[in-house]
Amino acid sequence: MVFIISSGLVLVALGAWLIYTYFLSPLASIPNAGFLAPVSRLLWEFPVEYQGRITLELPKLHKRLGPLVRIGPNQVSFYSLDIYKKVHAPNSPFAKDPRVYSQFVQDGHPALFSITDPKEHAQRRRHMGIVFNRSKVPALTDMMVGTIDSWVKYLASVSAKGPVDLGPTCRALESDIVSKFAFGNAIGAVKSLHLGKEVAVIKENDIKSSKMPVYTNFPILVGLWHYLADWIFKVTGLVLSSVTSSQQFDQWADSQLLAVKDTEKAPSLSFLKVMSEERIPEQSALSEAKEMLGPGTDTTSATLAHILYALSLNQTFQEDLVSDLQAAGWSVDMSALESIPRLVASVKEGIRWTGAAAAMLPRIVPQGGYLLAGKHLPGGTMISSSPIWYLRDETAFPDPERYRPSRWLVQENTEATSLRDDYYVPFSKGASTCVGIHFAYLELFLSLSQLLKRYSIHPVKSSRVTALDHEAILPPRREWVAAVPIDRLEVMLLER
Ligand code: HEM
């Protein structure tokens, strides 16, 4: 009898909640992404998101349904540059959603990317400006050039054997640059490639991001996984591969922190060192350095790989670019590189075309609610949008799937150029705009120019080149936190 009554009560409560979420909720008037969206984001989205297609599918839905689409009981996706500018304004009241950003926290010490409290975030950002501001980044040139030089030498041995697989190759370079910057010593990713391996902790970033939908909807699963892995390790001595590699990485990172404290062994320049002098608690500085390896590596490496692939298909543009670099004496000076229009155009277009930072950047509507696109969204609603949707906007970037550096060579002030500049938000905007923007530009300018100094880039299958000025079409990809091409991006490198 008790069972029948309690089951009945559960059913009534469930029925009432369903009526609420479908018909009475303040979000009920917003079009649903799928029939089950008002019940659970995971239910309608998981199959698509797990395949890395959510940021590819949602813009199509927005085209049909408008700027706001309900993607969960209290979650809304938006696609509108006006809303994007409000949500990501410098003093925006929309804070980062802790449910998502907490998944990136290393060892319980939130770093800039994962700090969600606006005041704490602003304070950490001021500290980090000491190394990331435009005026400071040129000091990293020698470190970057040295690392790129070893990579270019490594390429000689692989390119002699045949096609170069750009994905792991560029990832190794960028991981070495970022780790050398962050810790003072490179993680040894290029060396590892020499031995035919990829550093596991870097490879795992992709795998981790593919599990984000589960993690963010069921954070308890993350804890459970770590608990289980630890338990299996203690009882059986068996180590699960991802735990091993992150343990190895943690040990390596801890040893770098010790080296920083040792005045004799301390590397001359490292983010860890600068931060520890800035009175940031050492464990926070360590987490900051570790966390940087994700956003600082996947993005620039994917971009570099896409640019090299696109240049292999556009010999005329490539040779014009080489002539410009030659005329500039293969300079490594940041200001000189910034004044080579074709280099800037190829990198800017590469950043736009690759759209490497695909994640939907979730923010929380402040208390009291907010009016967006004519709808009142209650406080606590999670709203999100991917910056890369704006990079593919057809009005701002005609033929968005094409790698077309010439769009950036037009300097006149026209409606088209102001639209182009307005929609170029690869690093997002506002208080959380990418802190690594100048770092990324310098890294890409140098990697691209130093590679072109030694090699010409050619397509693997010449049949793909339909014309000399062939504009590459964006290779099929999966998009999670970062974008990952489905097929290998391969080129032939020939010594000049
Ligand atoms: C093409 C290269 C890059 C792209 C497209 C890119 C994109 C982005 C985007 C869209 C965000 C905003 C994320 C959010 O609001 O949650 C971001 C934040 C961030 N990026 Fe980058 N990024 C790039 C390179 C780098 C590099 C090279 C580094 C470091 C060496 C870096 C470090 C960071 C950090 C620490 C944040 C957090 C900033 C904050 O919350 O204040 N990024 N990046």
Automatic annotation (TrEMBL):
One GO molecular-function entry: heme binding
Q: Which residues bind heme?
A: 434
What domain of life?
Eukaryota
Which coenzymes or cofactors are required? heme
Question: Signal peptide position in this chain?
Answer: none
Give UniProt keywords alphabetically: Heme, Iron, Metal-binding, Monooxygenase, Oxidoreductase
Keyword check for Metal-binding, yes or no. Answer: yes
Q: Does the keyword Oxidoreductase apply?
A: yes
List the SUPFAM superfamilies.
Cytochrome P450 (SSF48264)
Q: Which PANTHER family match?
A: CYTOCHROME P450, P450, PUTATIVE (EUROFUNG)-RELATED
Q: What family does the database annotate? A: Belongs to the cytochrome P450 family.
Name of this protein? Benzoate 4-monooxygenase cytochrome p450
Q: Which organism is it from?
A: Aspergillus heteromorphus CBS 117.55
